[in-house]
Design brief:
Endonuclease III, domain 1, 11 helices
Length: 171
């Protein structure tokens, strides 16, 4: 066994190599690239009501279906693209989440124009976690407080909750 296999991790990622890799290398690391922030928010929106495992295993399908999850490309999607996405078995086919993703891309474009970057927008939010969550909920479609918190954790804008037995707990 390798050292990464023998480490104790958060229970949610046990025995799944893709989840382990995400846990060890991505979760909680600060994201500054606009398109990657948009991807992280989008995946968290699609995860609501499902398992993170399901979404992570479909991430490449989401990237393909949503043209790399590039903000500029997704913002240009119209009704025909929505109908196409609703037929794509590789992603979660939820009309409101798909439509929210397109609207969120337009919102992201406006924020980038106004703030300079999405990273700057997220770092300029108030210090209190709940205030950050409320602003994100108000700013983006189909985002609740839990989704906002999960996004902020995943993208490294607030601390993450490792299990106390996880080797990354004190980091």
């Amino acid at each position: 066994m390798s050292a990464t296999q023998t480490r104790e991790r958060c229970k949610w990622c046990e025995e799944d190599p893709l989840l382990i890799q995400y846990h060890d290398e991505e979760w909680g690391e600060r994201v500054t690239d606009d398109d990657l922030l948009f991807e992280a928010l989008t995946l968290e929106i699609f995860q609501a009501g499902l398992s993170w495992r399901t979404i992570l295993h479909k991430r490449e399908n989401f990237r393909n279906a949503f043209e790399g999850l590039e903000i500029a490309r997704v913002a240009d999607f119209g009704p025909d693209k929505v109908e196409e996405l609703l037929q794509d078995k590789g992603i979660v086919r939820h009309r409101r989440k798909i439509e929210a993703t397109i609207e969120n891309a337009k919102t992201a474009q406006s924020l980038i124009k106004r703030e300079g970057s999405l990273s700057h927008f997220f770092t300029s939010l108030p210090e209190a976690k709940i205030d950050k969550q409320k602003i994100i909920k108000k700013t983006f479609r189909h985002v609740g407080l839990t989704t906002a918190e999960s996004f902020l954790q995943a993208a490294g804008f607030i601390g993450i909750d490792h299990d106390h037995t996880c080797y990354l707990y004190k980091r």
